Amino acid sequence: MVEGVTDRGAIRKVANRLNVNVRIYVMNGNKSEKLKGIVNTHAPHYTNFILMKDLHRLSEHSIRQIYNTTCRQISMPLRDRLTLIIVKYEIEAWFLADIDALNKTFHCNIMNEFNNPEEIEKPSEELDLLLMKKCGRRYYKIEKYAERIMENADYEKISEKVSSFQQLINCIS
Q1: Which residues contact 140 (CB under 8 A, 6 or more apart)?
Q2: Of 22, 60, 96, 131, which residue is the least packed, with the fewest Cβ within 10 Å?
Q3: What's the CATH code of the domain at 59?
Q4: Is this prediction's pTM over 0.85?
Q5: How many CA atoms lie within 13 A of 77 on its CB side?
Q6: What is the pLDDT of residues 103-157, one digit of tens each?
Q7: Measured distance CA(76)–CA(160) in Å, rounded
Q8: Nearest alpha-carbon partner for 73 in 42, 38, 108
Q9: CB 55 within 8 A of CB 91
Q10: 39 assigned to some structural domain
């Protein structure tokens, strides 16, 4: 379960490259009833559930509160199959972790290197500024861009720089 279409595109491509079958639900908001409903409805069909939330709009404390409240409403056996991954601050931090993937995707020559992209509070804005300055192109939060970037990405490189990406890999592998 992800927040938006950009997340869905990135996760879909990662799962495809790892040959893992996943079903991705876009949450569109922070409604705990939605999470509870998805887990309860689909429990017989899936072994694990992953909730990915970013810190774009809510604090980590608020996200954990929502998650814990929801977990209390789900039966214990199902609760044990649910994992929360907090992406700091947006999934675009994953994209900034591998500049070579951006160069291949957008056909440009970006020389910047981000050692810790999770420290960038607005990685989507940073990515847009970088692409405008170096490639004359805009970055849009759309599924197609996320898929293309993750198609070209070096997952080892991203894992070294971004803990939430490594958590995802560990959960779905």
Answers
A1: none
A2: 60
A3: 3.40.50
A4: yes
A5: 5
A6: 999 999 999 999 999 999 999 999 999 999 999 999 999 999 999 999 999 999 9
A7: 33
A8: 38
A9: no
A10: yes
DSSP 18: T
Residue range(s) defining the domain that contains residue 69: 1-90+142-173
In a domain, 31, yes or no: yes
Q: Which two tokens stand for residue 28?
A: 């569109």
Backbone φ and ψ for 115, nearest 5 degrees, come out as -75, -35
Cα separation, 157 vs 155, whole angstroms: 5
**118 contact partners, CB below 8 Å, separation of at least 6:** 88, 89, 93, 161, 162, 163, 164
CA dist 67 and 71 (Å) reads 6
How far the first Cα of the chain sits from its last, in Å, is 17
